[in-house]
Write a structure and sequence with these properties.
single chain, alpha/beta, Rossmann fold, about 20% strand, globular, Histidine phosphatase family protein, PGM_Phosphatase, His_PPase_superfam, His_Pase_superF_clade-1
Length: about 200
């Protein structure tokens, strides 16, 4: 039986607004982030979308977002936390390296500075979300995560050229919809708030 995963990026934070690198470190949601998360929750209700289970990363910006989207109980999971950027945490986004031309991400760059590689992030997020969706009573699930983590999860199931062709963008509060069947995720759609 096909199941559905809604994978959402958290709402805008202070560090997003200030263009600071935010992986393992955290900052509070802005007024815009709060309003956007509430709007996503209302959009789900308006379209009759409900969840039998809800999850978020262990980072406060994700749990705060989830609590604004739905009032149902949820579980926090380390496996869907954001990419760790080592000593670059809290620094200006201008310090980010150019994307690896083959992997279309930061590749292994942050490993030398105490962070994670793109493939490490991808492996833990895929493992965590696969374990969640394999549970028999999980049919329609919401998981609130982060931009880098969501991107690497999507890259497992969709070629980079196809991501570009479809114009998939990871704005704050963007929601990626996947179907899940027998260990495989299939990308269905990306929902974004109109800015």
């Amino acid at each position: 039986m096909t199941k559905t995963l809604y994978l959402m990026r958290h709402g805008q934070t202070l560090f997003n607004q200030l263009h600071k690198i935010q992986g393992a470190c955290d900052s509070p949601l802005t007024a815009q982030g709060i309003a956007d998360a509430k709007q996503v929750g209302q959009n789900f209700r308006d379209h009759g979308v409900t969840f039998d289970h809800a999850y978020c990363s262990t980072q406060e910006r994700a749990s705060d977002t989830l609590e604004l989207v739905t009032s149902q109980p949820y579980q926090r999971l380390k496996g869907i936390k954001e990419w760790t950027f080592g000593v670059f945490e809290g620094e200006s986004e201008r310090l980010n390296p150019q994307p690896d031309p083959v992997r279309h991400s930061h590749g292994d760059f942050f490993l030398q500075y105490g962070g994670e590689s793109d493939l490490q992030v991808q492996a833990r997020v895929v493992k965590t979300l696969s374990e969640i969706m394999a549970k028999p009573d999980h049919q329609q699930v919401l998981a609130v995560s982060h931009g880098g983590a969501c991107f690497m999860f999507l890259r497992k199931w969709l070629d980079f050229d196809e991501i570009q062709r479809r114009g998939i963008v990871f704005d704050n509060c963007a929601v990626l919809k996947f179907s899940y069947d027998q260990g495989q995720f299939t990308f269905e759609d990306c929902y974004r708030l109109t800015k």
